């Protein structure tokens, strides 16, 4: 009697989501996912915390409504954890870099800490 393997995290779906389709990206999050964002506006002692797919969806809708490109630079998956780098560029040339560490359950993101920095205008 064997045990069923948990579904694997799909890094190619992550790439397709980041580089073009926020709905594809949202499909990688568990319903109860938590996303912590740390940046110049939400510093480590008071990160912006989003709870659940609805709040994460609203953030993705905002980000992907902007005139900018997104590129998955690197992704490493090991067991129930993964990390990835994303680079973005606004139409006016301002660049954004983010690094994420994620926890996985059944191939879905349950926790994400995203640290981002961007060019000052």
UniProtKB/TrEMBL annotation:
It comes from the Bacteria. It holds the Pfam family SnoaL_2. InterPro entries: NTF2-like_dom_sf, SnoaL-like. Residues 19-111 form the SnoaL-like domain. This is Nuclear transport factor 2 family protein.
